[in-house]
Structures are given as structure tokens and as C-alpha cells.
Write a structure and sequence with these properties.
The chain has 268 residues and is an all-alpha fold. The chain has eleven helices and two strands. It has a two-stranded antiparallel ribbon with strand order 1-2. It is globular and about 55 Å long.
Length: 268
């Protein structure tokens, strides 16, 4: 989910939105706080997404709207600064102590002779539903169609009289929403810590690059490929789980520099 947002941000807005990892971590911490206070995981998940959307809207209007015309490196450095400041704020509010969140769904399901925890099955199904929802939004709605057109050729979309900056705002908010959802859903599987976003940064960017910048379909297929490679790699040789995804990325870029499903027309 987080990688879909990253891909959309670069594909349309031509920015490297490193602060998505802050929204991921913030969504997880707010989910933890609400669960600790009320015991309701789903309420925590919704609260995390709501707070992140408000903060992301503030960041987009106050910071990103001023740099869309700047070079790519400018957005990369600025978003890295927003990410660091956000993580620092999380450390100040929640501290450094790892925090557990109880899984809202117990039990397990037998899949191919292996017991898979019920919550993980739910997350897989929800991720598929979210992908279908994003696909429907991008392919069957007017705003989504404009966003897809902007990913391929921003100048033509502007020439048609469409305010590209409003599409930027919608895209950025959607990306932050997906990041917060990913962070909240991840809390029962990991310990909630301020730096939890930084630990997945490399793999997230690998997924986006392999799939092709701006391609939601490519991001989904890339995420499945990288996940399977990491799983099989860890069974064969521990370090291979970390090396294999990078090798896959190198091979893909050598064969297809735009990624598996990246647009050949994508340009800044």
C-alpha cells in the first residue's frame, strides 16, 4: 500500500516523497495509542488515517505546493527533512520504547498444509481489496483518469484546461492515506517504534523501481515478486534474502530501464 502511494507521487507529481515513511510510522503510533486507550483496533486504524490525512494536507499546501517547479533533488531533500522532523516529533511524543499491539483477529487458516495466522490472511485480502479500489478510482472515475493521463504526459493534461495542482493534492492525500493504513495494519505484526518507516525504505523503493514508476499494476506485481524472493532466499541462505531483491532490480533495470510496467513516456 505504501509503495503504491510512492509510485503515484513520482509518477504524477515527479517528487520523491520520503515523508510517506513518516505517515506510515505516525499511522502506526496513533493506532497504538487508540488501541491502548479503547481496546478497539479498528477505531485506532481509522483515527490514524484521519490524523495523517490532515497532516499530509497541511504539508502539501504549506511545503510541496511551493516546490513543484523545482528540480527532483529539491523535493527529495525536502521530503527527507520532513521525514526526519516527523520521526523526531514521534520520538518526542511517544518515546523510544517499542510498543506492542494485540492482533484483532485470532486463529489460523490452513493454506497448502501450512497454518497461516488469521490476521495475515485478512491483511492479504484487504490489500487485494485496496488495490482493486485504487484501480477502480484510477480507471473508472474522472479524477483517476486525469491522474493517469498526467502520469503519461502532464503537459497535455494542462493543455486540456485541467488544474494539475489539484490532482497533485488528491494524489498526495491518497498516498498518505495508504501509508497510514499500511502502518496501522502492520502494528500487530511488529513492535511499534519511531524508526519503523526507515527500516523498510530500501525495500519499498526497490518495489517501486522494479514495478515501474507510476504503475500501480507494476507495483503490485513487483511487491509479490520481492516478497517471494525474500521468503525463498531466507530458506536457502539468510543473507540471500537481502541480496536477491537488489539483484532482481539490477536485472530488471538492465532489460527494462523504466521497470516492468513503467511508462515509456514518463518524463519530468
Amino acid at each position: 500500500m505504501l509503495t503504491v502511494g510512492l509510485s503515484m507521487c513520482y509518477g504524477l507529481m515527479r517528487i520523491v516523497s520520503l515523508d510517506q515513511f513518516f505517515y506510515y510510522s505516525l499511522g502506526a503510533h496513533i493506532t497504538y495509542t487508540v488501541v491502548a486507550s479503547t481496546g478497539n483496533f479498528w477505531l485506532g486504524l481509522l483515527a490514524g488515517m484521519a490524523v495523517v490525512v490532515l497532516i499530509a494536507l497541511l504539508v502539501e499546501k504549506s511545503i510541496y505546493s511551493r516546490i513543484y517547479e523545482k528540480p527532483l533533488m529539491f523535493s527529495m531533500i525536502l521530503s527527507f527533512g520532513v521525514n526526519l522532523a516527523g520521526v523526531g516529533l514521534i520520538k518526542y511524543i511517544w518515546g523510544l520504547t517499542p510498543k506492542p499491539v494485540k492482533s484483532p483477529i485470532g486463529g489460523s487458516l490452513a493454506v497448502l498444509g501450512t497454518d497461516v495466522p488469521g490476521y495475515r490472511v485478512f491483511v492479504i485480502l484487504l490489500a487485494a481489496a485496496v488495490y482493486l479500489g485504487v484501480w477502480y478510482f484510477l480507471n473508472k472515475t474522472v479524477i483517476g483518469t486525469a491522474i493517469r493521463a498526467g502520469i503519461d504526459d502532464m503537459e497535455k493534461v494542462e493543455a486540456m484546461g485541467i488544474n494539475i495542482y489539484k490532482l497533485f493534492t488528491v494524489t498526495f492525500i491518497l498516498a498518505a492515506l495508504l501509508s497510514a493504513l499500511a502502518g496501522g495494519l502492520h502494528t500487530p505484526m511488529v513492535m511499534v517504534v519511531p524508526d519503523m518507516g526507515l527500516s523498510i525504505t530500501a525495500f519499498a523503493f526497490m518495489v517501486v523501481i522494479i514495478g515501474g514508476l507510476g504503475s500501480i499494476k507494476g507495483t503490485l506485481i513487483s511487491a509479490i515478486l520481492v516478497g517471494q524472493i525474500v521468503s525463498f532466499g531466507s530458506l536457502i541462505w539468510g543473507p540471500l534474502a537481502h541480496i536477491a531483491p537488489f539483484l532482481l532490480m539490477l536485472v530488471v533495470l538492465l532489460v527494462r530501464p523504466t521497470g516492468l510496467y513503467g511508462s515509456a513516456y514518463l518524463r519530468r
